[in-house]
Amino acid sequence: MRILVTNDDGMNASGLVTLERAVQRLGGEVYVVAPEQEHSAQSHAITVRQPVFARSLPLTHGEKQRIAISGTPCDCVRLACIKLLEHKPDLCVTGINHGANLGWDVFFSGTVSAAAEAHSFGIPSIAFSLATWSKPDWTHLDLLVADLLRSLLAARHTQRNFLYSVNIPPIAPAKMQGAKITRLEPLVKGDNFEEREAPDGRHYYWPTWDERKAARDKITDEHYDSAAVRAGYISITPLRYDVSAIEDTALTPVFSDYKPGRALEA
């Protein structure tokens, strides 16, 4: 099995090293193609108006290739699949992200978007995130992730190129309650901006998170990813990227007999 590994925290991130150790336990050929710098919250951004550089690095964990990319997480996947790898990967795993990717965050996340990009190439893909923004404890996490991977790969999937987002609670594996198959939490708006003044007198705004504001919208139903993680469960969310809302029929009577030429008859 050929496994592509990438992330959005950068080539030197502890989460990437932990993920490498986990996939090595599965056997097969491991290819690490990751951003040379952090690209958190880059979503599905790709580079279009400047070159993308690829730099081979010394092998560190028994991988077949280790390549640092000057672009975004999605650049890493695209370049790996189109140019850098001789054969298409059988699996793509991303992370382990330092911080949760729950609810609406999947649309901002470079970690989840890199997995989604691989999914668009027909590659089964799994994004892993450790749900803490404080100093993480990576101890034994490679063993847990390796076990999760074996279980995920053993499932009878309804489609070959599946896409999962896995969020791990920041507690010791022995204290975790288990795993839940979840859906994304409805949008929680804890976003805020703190107004500050630069040394030259200009005002600017620093993005912050307002926990009190967000707490008003928190839910406790553990069928949702964020509630499951807060309760000590590993959250596994199957994703799909067809966001068409064709069931919305409000426009049908308006445009069923629409004639563009009428705009010129007025």
General shape? globular
Return the domain count: 2
Q: SS-based structural class?
A: alpha/beta
Average of per-residue pLDDT values: 90
Structural summary, described in words:
This protein has 266 residues and is an alpha/beta fold. The chain has 2 domains: 203 residues, 3-Layer(aba) Sandwich (Stationary-phase Survival Protein Sure Homolog, Chain: A), CATH 3.40.1210.10; 33 residues, no CATH class. 24% of the residues lie in helices and 24% in strands. It contains 7 helices and 11 strands. The protein has a 9-stranded mixed sheet. Strands 9-10 form a two-stranded antiparallel ribbon. Helix 1 packs across helix 4 and helix 2 runs parallel beside helix 3. The longest helix has 14 residues. It is globular and about 70 Å long. The N and C termini lie far apart (63 Å).
Task: Please give a quick description of this structure.
By secondary structure, the chain is α/β, with parallel strands linked by helices. The protein contains 7 helices and 11 strands. The protein folds into 2 domains: 2-186 and 224-241, 3-Layer(aba) Sandwich (Stationary-phase Survival Protein Sure Homolog, Chain: A); 187-219, no CATH class.
